[in-house]
Input
Amino acid sequence: MNEQMITRLIENATQLFLLLALAPLVTGVIRTLKARLQTRRGPSIFQPYRDLLKLFRKGMVIPETASWIFAATPWVVFFSTILAGLMIPMVAAVAPFGLLGDALAVIYLLGLGRFFLALSGLDTGSSFGGLGSSREMTISALAEPAMMLAIFTVAIGAGSTGLTEIAGVAIGQNWRFLAPAQMFAFAALALVLIAETGRIPVDNPATHLELTMIHEAMILEYSGPYLALVEWAASIKQLVLMTLLINCFWPVGLQTAWSGFGALQGIGWLLAKLLFLSCAIVLIETANAKLRLFRVPELLAVAFTLGSLALVSTFLF
Amino acid sequence: MTPFLNLQFGERIVTLLAALVLVLQIAMVSQRWIVINIRIFAAQSFFLAMIAATIAWFNHAPHIFAAAALTLVVKVILVPILFERLVERMEIHEEIEPIVNVPLSVVIAGGLTLVGYVVAASFYRPDAPGLGHNALAVAISLFLIGFFTMINRRKALTQVLALLSLENGLFLAAISLTYGMPLIVELGILFDVLVAAMVMGILVYRIRETFESIDVSRLRRLRG
Amino acid sequence: MLLVALLLVPLATAAASFFARRRAAMEALNLAGFAAVFLAAVALAAQVLANGTVSLGNGFFYADALSALVILLTVSVALVCSAYSIGYLRDDQQSGALGEDASGIEQIAQLRMYYTLTPLFVFSMLLMAVANNLGVMWAAMEATTLASIFLVTFYGKITSLEAAWKYAIIGGVGLSMALFGTLVTYYAGHSLAGSDSLSGLNWSVLAQHAAALDKMSMRLAFVLILLGYGTKAGLAPMHTWKPDAYSEAPVPSAALLSTALLNCALYCLIRFYILASRCLGAEYPSRLLLLFGLLSMGVAVPFVLAQRNFRRMLAYSTIDHAGIMVIALGLGGALGSLGLMLHMAFHTIAKSLLFLSAGNVYQHFRTDLFSKIKGSVIRAMPLTGVVLFIAMLAIVGMPPFSLFQSEFLILRAAFEGGHILTGALFVLFSTGVFTGALMHVSGMVLGPGGDAAVAARRPWRDGSLLALASVLVVIGFWLPAPLLELIRAAARVVSGQ
Output
């Protein structure tokens, strides 16, 4: 009993640590790779850590018109994202908080964070904040159904919406990926990943022009530790979605259970797959231009159609 | 080599390629740039040739290899080159807003895919060779979506591309239903496709010269 | 032998015309070529009457009475049109219709295109009629579309391009559906073919074993074929390309399109109908055919009544007659089939005569509009006026002209077969077309009218008009026995005994 509890504690702590530590690294890797592809030198891959540290040490400036929402949001976003992250299988097919929540809980926790961010954007009273909030909500209104359809597809295949079961079912059969339902769901989730993490072609994370911002516009008024929390949460969300994509569809190297050496193997595979996915994201970002805002629904309509096709294909085959 | 001879593996590959072909067709519905549409068509034909080759391999049917090779030459190389040169000469690169807006047309394309699956289900016989049942559904969907795109689009060249993707669907249906038609028929059909592409290309070019645009909604002089 | 000669001569004519330098050479080559093909077609018809069927290449080429009749009709029209086009194109060259600023060389190039494409067009129609393989038949049909597209754009006007584009697209979609139908037919017969996959698409083989074809697939196949080849035949609702194409193409090409191509499209429909009715029983296919036929006739009526352009009215009349023939096919039986074949033959003669007269009228008055030609035709061109009027009477089914007999046969088939509603609608729609056509044409030919100058003599055009008109008048009363026998034999092929 005791030993079990200690093992569980270690697993949870490891996953928590991975979430917190890996997230800025992934952001940094993507940024640097993109720079290298554009023949620039780019920042070091550890730069996001330094940015976070710097922000934590700085003072804050809070708008006068802001209410308690402005202060509460960074905490809500941060903790909801971490909670969601603990519910997904990262190293092993068993998610630490797997019994507490399933795929739907993950989606809704991420949605909760986004909701509060949007509110805080409105809360500041600046027009850019409102602009960012409305844009973000438009995109998520279209992206969430697509994501849900894709998740339901894999859930039907696994017989449950629990992410542990989903990943577990996929582990043994490597060619499962070739079924059209899985392919469509993967394509839909990949498109949603791009929309939710604010990557080109949906949103440019490196833009400094306020009128083209979506995510950045919402958090324009944040500074200091609050900004650090929000940025960290954003990169954790990116990590969560990437891991979800990887481990639901391509669980090569995912362990069935946490065990000493197996855990290290699992972490190794995770890092490798994350690197691969980051390279893919960088290629997509570099090869495309940012879509104009009213063209984004077209992209998301494709994601939605793919998602529904995926769902229907599970019944037709 | 064992996995390469396994029929189930072949079925998976064919299903995968058919799904890719379908995704490309839906992409063509949402795509705006004509040159990218041409390349999507080339990629689609390439995957079709691969499907034909796979089926030929697993069923030991050499004449399908010939059909696959012909498709490769005509639809992946010749016709796209023809059209890309045409686009360069005409200097028209972008499609204007279709009659039904893009998100809705993508959803309609998804609906047509379902119709295709339902129609194909009536052809499904459990005793018949299983390879290619999914491919038939994709083929009918390709046919329907190509038809819809032809009605929906306004630029003449995109209409021709939709017509050709419709023929792609027929080729896929031929391959999956009956393992291709007799070779001479395939030859005749491909020759017709090539000549049709050339003829339509010339026609589009002349329309451009006369109308200063290839917007077919302008072709409204003859009525009644 | 004969079939090979039938196919090679038009090809050789096309090739020779392509390399010819002078207009006179091209004209002579075309005329001679079509005359030779005409002789070959007559010889083929004789052979078919004697032996039943003619086949070559282990059943790859196959000609029975139906093919022979269609070939004979096609080639006759082609011959007359090639004689007519000599005068017609010379007039165009002089009047500048080939392009006002075009130099002599450019005009010759345009003529070359016409004289090369027309034999190719005829070749593909002949190939379609002798091909046993349904896939080759489809490919030949597609070739007719491709060959005729540039005939439609001959004058290079904006409206020509529009007409050609509609023709290309609608024809392309229709033929894709026909290909799909052919494919499904192949699938339906797949289990029969056995080892030789090529014969699996052979019509003669499929017709023999039609009862064993897969029924579900044949249902789908027939619908697709009807939609597909029906588009080429101009059945409603796929008819919208016809008025544009017929009014923009040069008149001899329009004549070929409206008679020979229509016959070929119907030929394909007949072949598949035979397969479908033997497999599924006559009820399902004939119901579909009756539906489309009546729809075509019905659609033609308002457009003929409210028409302002003469050649467009002819196009709608063609749609009407396509509907009639499809109804005849759907009614089936000995009477219906005989009516169909007779109607096909008579319609070919009358319609081509109408188009050629329309060409005369257009070249003299430079317009197709009724309002502008009002009443001047008989004064300006007495021969053309008379011929036009006679042909119009024939085409609307006025006795004693031959079309009245064939339509009457079809009506008899309808009422005797119990299709009362069909017969009633048939009469109603025919009356509508009759009224409209007669009203417009008599206003154009007779009537007060302005004073247009009397036209100059035109040997080629008037000569061919006269020849065809005399044929039309004669067959109203007397059909040469071999021709009648051929028609009866073709009807027997259709009705299946």
